[in-house]
Amino acid sequence: MPKLTNISPKKLIKILETLGFQLDHSTGSHFILYNKEKERRAVVPYHKKELPKGTLTSILREAGVTREDLKNLTNRTSHKN
Predict the structure, then answer these.
(1) How far is the C-alpha of 58 from the C-alpha of 37, rounded, in Å?
(2) Structural domain boundaries in the chain
(3) 2: pLDDT strictly greater than 90
(4) Is pLDDT at 73 greater than 90 in this prediction?
(5) Using alpha carbons only, how large is the chain's radius of gyration in Å?
(6) Going edge to edge, which strands form the sheet with 40-45?
């Protein structure tokens, strides 16, 4: 299992959007994204700091995204910039 890299909430939201998630609504500093096809949601706290590893793991679990998927998508999105 690959190690989790530090990731900002903004970058995680972009990755989730490439997987078909769309912003459903926001509550305070939390963005709630929803994927209609998978019928899954992901709640991302939107702060300036990078996400703690435990929080990131929890978000990935509720979104149905594996660490391997995250690693591949992180590499793909970083090459676009």
Answers:
(1) 20
(2) 9-80
(3) no
(4) no
(5) 12
(6) 22-27, 30-35, 40-45
